[in-house]
Amino acid sequence: MTDLMVQIDGETVPLADCFWVRANSAGCAVGSVRPDLGDDLIATPEQAHREWSTTKRQRASDDKHGMRHLLLTPQQWDEQAKPCFLGRCGHRPTVG
User: Fold this and answer.
1) 3-state secondary structure (DSSP) of residue 82
2) Tens digits of per-residue pLDDT, 42-80?
3) Which of 5, 10, 41, 66 has the most CB within a 10 Å radius?
4) Nearest Cα residue to 27 out of 90, 95, 87, 94
5) In sequence order, which residues have a C-beta less than 8 Å from that of residue 89 and are 6 or more positions away?
6) Are the beta carbons of 72 and 19 closer than 8 angstroms?
């Protein structure tokens, strides 16, 4: 992959170091992928959306239900997405 740079919240970072995150309407991360998938480069939220939802119908349903596709720096991923994947975020109701 080329050394494509992106700006996220005022910080310029290599796209290859970032993560695309799929978040539900509550803001909980439910999927994550690196921008470089072999020969494919995911550079826009629309391209990221197509990685998870391959049909127009799926994407329309995602939009209706508030799914978002966010590009995060490694630090943002650790702070915002990782807790969701570990079940330690405040997005889900506690069970028990």
Assistant:
1) helix
2) 999 999 999 999 999 999 999 999 999 999 999 999 999
3) 41
4) 90
5) 28, 29, 83
6) yes
